Amino acid sequence: MQAQTQLQAAQVRDVDAEGEALGRLRDARRRHLFATLAIRVVSLAVVLGVWEVFGRQVNPVLFAPPSAVFAAAVQLIGSGELWRYLSQSLVVLAYGFVAATVLGIGAGLVMARYWVIDVALETYITALYSIPMVAVVPVLVLWIGFDTLAKSVVIFLFTFFPIVINTYQGVKNVDPRLVEVGRAFRANEAQLWTNIILPAALPFIIAGLRLAIGRGLIAMVFADIYTAISGIGYLVVRYASIYQIDKMFVPVVTLGVLGVTLTGILRLAERRLAPWMNQQARE
Q1: What is the DSSP letter of 60?
Q2: Cα torsion through 39, 40, 45, 47, rounded to 10
């Protein structure tokens, strides 16, 4: 009876210790989140402050402070002009990026899995990735024209290669001992991919998507300017040509905010789909 009482007391102490450990972990996460948020707010305030002071000392024909950009943004948003041109560019970005994601991940997986395909395509992937896409645009215009398809192809070419290369490296970096363990437990090919290879390669794939997002936004503006003058690239060119720098900065800042937002969404997806990687980073 006494031994049973001691065992129950020990179990209660273990539960209490586990609860305290979880409480400390939650407190540590809250402190880290608060510190991160505070640093970002202070950093943003400093940057905007320096920008405001410097912008007021420069000719408004050449530069604009944040206060003027904000006033111009209110005007463009209120008139619907910003969203009208931004939506045109976002449609093209969606077409090109989705196509690059599907084909890039598929090509990376196939190349990493089958060495014959790897040997056959590696040279072409490296060569095409090394070619400046700016030099290809005039040829694309001759072949495809100036419409949405041409812009989508430009975005595809800018975003495809980071995705395929990162996917390939992710599969190649899978620990072969994990694959051997899976084979030892008689896992078939589909089970190996589902339970071992893809989860291990997922952080690399998402990293490739994050790189591709930045290149895709650059390609979106580039395609707007050099294929058909439309979309958000049109706003940049239009207001720069008439020296309304405050309004010119509005689509530029919008692109920056859009890039941060899309990258944040991918980071959130990584935490959801690969929580073990986030745990390793904290440790």
Answers
A1: T
A2: 110
Q: Please report where in the chains the tokens 């700016």 appear, as a residue.
A: 134
pTM over 0.85: no
Domain regions of the chain by residue span: 1-57, 61-282
pLDDT tens string 102-132: 999 999 999 988 889 888 888 888 888 888 8
Structural tokens at position 26: 């939650």
| Tokens coding 14 | 């273990």
* Tokens at 31, concatenated: 């402190």
Amino acid at position 261, single letter: T
List the CATH code of the domain at 61-282.
Answer: 1.10.3720.10
Task: Return the ∠ at Cα 239 (arms to 237 and 245), rounded to 5°.
Answer: 115
The residue written with tokens 């992937």 in the block is: 125
Q: Which amino acid is at 83?
A: W
Burial class, 163, CB count within 10 angstroms (exposed 0-12 / middle 13-18 / buried 19+) = buried
pLDDT tens for 128-169 read 888 887 778 778 877 887 778 888 888 999 999 999 999 999
Contact between 104 and 156 (Cβ < 8 Å):
no
Q: How far apart are the C-alpha atoms of 159 and 156, rounded to whole Å?
A: 5
Cβ-defined contacts of 218-221 (< 8 Å, 24+): 218/158, 219/96, 219/133, 219/154, 219/155, 219/157, 219/158, 219/159, 220/89, 220/92, 220/93, 220/151, 220/155, 221/89, 221/255
Token pair recorded at residue 274 = 């690969």
